[in-house]
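Action item from last week, closing it out:
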Amino acid sequence: MASSEQPNDQTARQNKQALTGLLCAILAYLTWGISPVFFKMLAAVPAFEILMHRMVWSFLFLLLIILISGRWRQFKDALTSWNNFRPLLASTLLVSGNWFLFIWAINSDHILQTSLGYYIAPLVSVLLGTLFLKERLRRLQAVAIILAGTGVGYSTLQHGLFPWVALGLALSFGLYGFIRKTAPVGALEGLAVETLILSFPAAAYLYCLDHSGEGAIFCSGIKIDLLLMGTAMVTAFPLLMFTIGARRLRLVTIGFLQYIAPSCTFILAVFVYREPFTSIQVYTFIMIWLALVIFSADAVLLNRETGRSAN
């Protein structure tokens, strides 16, 4: 009797973990997706100043999480080992550039381009894996990348403007993910080191700004003060939720969920902030969406093939 109950208990435990993982991952992507609303409330503050606050407050918040979760040794290893620390120097520049471009784009009414950028990002990651990790590009993946490239090219030719915000976000995020994938450092510790690296010059910059009377914090009202401190939550909270979700879900499930964030951003751009959505952009997004459908179908097929071979 006990032996028949044990598998049922194990299945129930696995189902509970999967549900927890699903909820955490959805919460992470929803937070990322609606973050433009948060940064829009800081539109009166220069994007670079917001970035500096994001670095300082994020580090303090992450340091608290590391101390509470008992991961100080892992953080110390990431900080003191040159093999661990070296790739984080490069990833720090990429993540700070990505954050700055995202904040600037939001407050400069380019939300639609941020959505396009994060739709393209998974395809950029596949391309980087093919170029630098010698991963084999499957046929459907190649079709998806060609479709996405066609969409971007069409938009450039018709508008006469290169979608540099979208591609800048996609490339910086893709390169960041590539470096972090190859670096032997956990997500929490890695982000803590990255924010630590920039928190010293960021704090110095904010001190000088405040000393000259040009800083926003403690001068623009309690709402702005709380929002600037809250940049830590916008940074660290979704990452922690994503980490919990990724450990409990299959990669193919995470692959589908990642489109929640740019979809939320797209809805905000078109229906809330009323950014122009021309017929040219419609065709561009249709090609990107078709590329993502093909890309996702390939992921499902690969997952099924892997499952059959394992059995």
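Closing note: The chain has one domain: 19-310.
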